[in-house]
Amino acid sequence: MTAPWQETDVSDGAGDGPKKVTVIGAGIAGLVAAYELERLGHHVEVVEASGEIGGRIHTHRFPGAGPTGPFAELGAMRIPAGHRLTMHYIAELGLQNQVREFRTLFSDDAAYLPSADGYLRVRDAHGALVREFAAALPDRGYRDNTLLFGAWLDASIRAIAPRRFYDGLHDEIGVELLNLVDHIDLAPYRCGASGNRMDLHRFFADHPQVRSFCPPRLERFLDDVLDETSSSIVRLRGGMDALPRRLASRIRGTIGTGREVVGIDVRDDAVLLSIRQGARTYTRSCDYVVCTIPFTVLRRMRLTGFDQEKLDIVHQTKYWAATKIALLCREPFWEKDGISGGASFTGGHVRQTYYPPAEGDPALGAVLLASYTIGPDADALGRLGEADRNALVLAELSEMHPELRRPGMVRDVAGLAWGERPWSWGAATVRWGQEAALREAERREAARPQKGLFFAGEHCSSKPAWIEGAIESAIDAAHEIEWYEPRASRVFATARPSRSDRSA
Questions:
Q1: Binding site for FAD: residue ranges?
Q2: Does domain 59-104+234-242+320-420 have CATH number 1.10.3210.10?
Q3: What are its cofactors (predicted)?
Q4: Could you say which of 78, 253, 435, 460 has the lowest number of CB atoms within 10 Å?
C-alpha cells in the first residue's frame, strides 16, 4: 500500500546507498521512523530504555484476566477519525477491523457532571448549567439557544482543562463570542435525547469564522476541546497496544529493550551514544540517529555538540503530566444505573471518569477508568503514594457511584502517573495558551537536526499530545535522513520541505 504522503519516485535526488540509522525510543514515533526508514532501503536498529515497546501507548492487562480479558488504557486511548496518518497505519497494518467508536465526555445522557446543585445527569443538567453560566454574564438579553450554547461550551472547557488553567481563561470566552453566536440559528445543533445539549463540534465545523472571536492564544486549546468531545473518535478493540506491536513485527532490524541512552555527543562525522545496559555502559558510534524520546528525558542526559538554540528548546519545552487510575470491578454496575458508555465529568481530584465497553468474559469483571487527570491536577495525584492516590480517588468517586463501596466490587486497581515515570517525565507537550506563530516556531526548533542527529516525537509535530503528531514527525525525520547529504550545504539539508509538508 502506498502511503498518502509518498510521491511516485522517492529515490530521485536522495543520498547514495543505504544508511545505517539508530533510533532512540520504541514508542510510536520511533517505530514509525524505523518502519519508514526500512521502506526507504536503510538499515535500522532501535534502542529502548524500558523493558517494553509502545512508549505512551500503554495497555494494562489485569493479572489473571488473560490476553482477551479486561484491560485499561493507561496511556493513549483514542484517535480522532480525521487523523489521516494514524488511520492510514491502522489500515496498512491490518487493524481496520478492530476500529470501534470511542464514546467520550457527555456522549451518554445518563452520565454525570457536577453543579452547584450536586451531581446531575447530562440529560438533566442544562437548566443548572444555563443558570450558572448566565449569572456570570453582564446584563444582556441573549436568546435561550445562545445561553445553552455558552453553557455547554463552558462545561466542556471546565471538564477538559485543569482547574488552574480553566480559572485563568474562564472570562476570555465571553461576550464577544456570544454576541456573534446570538445571530446564528442554533436550533440545528441541539442534540441529546431531549434536545437540551449542543453539538459544539458540528457547530464550529459549519461556522469556522466564529473561531476568530476566541482569543488567539486559545486556538490550540479549543481544537483539543472539540476533538475530545467529537462523536468521530475511535479506539482499537482489544487494546491500543496492537498498533505498536503490529508495527514492531514489521521491522526487520533489532529492537533492543533495556538499553538506556545516557549521553549523546554530536560530531561532524558521527553521533556517539553512551548506552547503559544492566551494569555496563558502553559507547556506540552511529552514522545517523533519530531521537524520539521526550525532551524531559533528553535534558537529563549528558549532551555535547548541540548548538545553544537546540539546548534551549530541549530545556524549555514544557510537558504536562497525566495520571490515570483504573478499577477492575466485579461487574459493570454503571449499566444498571443507565450508563452505557462515554464519560462523566466528576470534578474534584478525579476529574474525568470513563466507562469502557465490557468486551470479553463477564465473569472476569469490567474496567472503570476511574480518574483521568492532566496538568497540575495530575501532578497533585502523581505526588501521592500509590495507596493514598487510589484511596483518594475511590473515596471521591464513591460519592457519585456509591456502588463502589459494596464489598468485593473493586477487585483490582491499576494506575500510572506519567509525570513520575522515568522514561517520560510527563505525558505530552501541551502548547495551550500560545499563539499560532509561537507554536510553529517552537515546533520547528524542536524538530531541527543537529548534523547527523534527527528528532521526532509528538513534541516535534503540529499535533502535540496525539498519536498523529508522533507519526507525522517520524515520517518527516525519515525523509530528512533520506535526503541528507553530509557534505552538502546546511541550507540544502535543512531547507528541503518534508514529505508531509509537500503533500499538504
A1: 48-49, 75-78, 261, 458
A2: no
A3: FAD
A4: 435
